[in-house]
Specification:
This protein is α/β, with parallel strands linked by helices and about 250 residues long. It has 3 domains: about 1-75; about 80-110, no CATH class; about 125-250, Response regulator (Rossmann fold). The chain is built from 7 helices and 7 strands. The protein has helices spanning about 1-75, 80-90, 145-155, 165-175, 195-205, 220-230, 240-250, and strands at about 95-100, 105-110, 135-140, 160-165, 180-185, 210-215, 235. It has a 5-stranded parallel β-sheet. It has a two-stranded antiparallel ribbon with strand order 1-2. A hairpin with a 3-residue loop joins β1 (about 95-100) and β2 (about 105-110). α4 runs parallel beside α5 (about 195-205) and α5 runs parallel beside α6 (about 220-230). The longest helix has about 70 residues, at about 1-75. The radius of gyration is 38 Å and the shape is elongated.
């Protein structure tokens, strides 16, 4: 009797162990599935967080650029004053400035007077007389508005136009490309100036044709650039006719 009872209990115990093992395996499977699901959710959350950070950074960068643009619009670029000073200097005049706190600033411009009559009569010319033949012009100027103005004028004169915002950008472009002529700003605030830009470009493309444009009076750097091979010097703001004549003359 004792042996039979022991055998029955042993079988019941093994049967219980089997159920317990099966339950344990089921629980382990559910834990693994849940862990995998949580890992997937965690990965997705990390991805969404990174995307949000990226979007936030892009938004901040856009805000910074907008603020900088508004500041530049508010304070101006200073080109107007340089053009005025250059024009007055060319006419052998001068400027007297008077400034008082909380009252403002007064600019007094003095130009030499003359009683001579102007006998120079402008010849009648048509815009077509200054047309190019679809030559490519690389405009190098650090001021966006000046680049766009030059582009519009050159496009009107039937030229293909490429824009560069700095001397360094122009040099990089010309390492793999060629152009027929440069319209080169001589004074650029960021990076190298027009003279150094032209000097380096000549090492890539010897004999590269160029026209120099500046809001300032003709400087030593302009003359040095011309000694290197640059052509006409035209002062900003220039007329469509002035630009067209300079282009035609240099591209002959």
């Amino acid at each position: 009797m004792i042996s039979v009872k022991f055998n029955n209990e042993y079988r019941e115990l093994k049967k219980y162990d089997g159920k317990l093992l099966k339950a344990h395996e089921g629980l382990e499977k559910r834990v693994n599935e849940r862990t995998a699901s949580l890992a997937k959710i965690n990965k997705q959350l990390k991805k969404e967080i990174e995307e949000r950070k990226k979007t936030e950074n892009e938004r901040k960068q856009l805000e910074i650029k907008l603020i900088q643009a508004q500041k530049m619009e508010a304070i101006g670029t200073g080109l107007g004053m340089s053009v005025v000073w250059g024009t007055i200097k060319d006419h052998k005049g001068y400027i007297n400035v008077k400034s008082e706190k909380e009252k403002g600033t007064t600019f007094m411009i003095y130009l030499p007077a003359t009683r001579e009559q102007n006998n120079n009569h402008r010849l009648d010319t048509k815009i077509e007389d200054y047309y190019g033949s679809n030559e490519t012009v690389l405009v190098v100027d650090d001021i966006k508005d000046q680049r766009e103005i030059a582009k519009d004028m050159l496009t009107t004169l039937n030229y293909s136009v490429v824009l560069a915002s700095s001397g360094e950008e122009a040099i990089e472009y010309l390492k793999t490309n060629t152009v027929d002529i440069l319209l080169l700003d001589m004074i650029m605030d960021n990076g190298i100036d027009g003279y150094e830009t032209y000097n380096r470009i000549l090492k890539i493309h010897p004999g590269q044709k160029a026209i120099i444009a500046s809001g300032f009076s003709e400087t030593d750097h302009v003359k040095q650039a011309q000694k290197l091979g640059a052509g006409s010097y035209i002062k900003k703001p220039y007329l469509l006719e002035t630009l067209g004549k300079a282009m035609i003359s240099e591209l002959k």
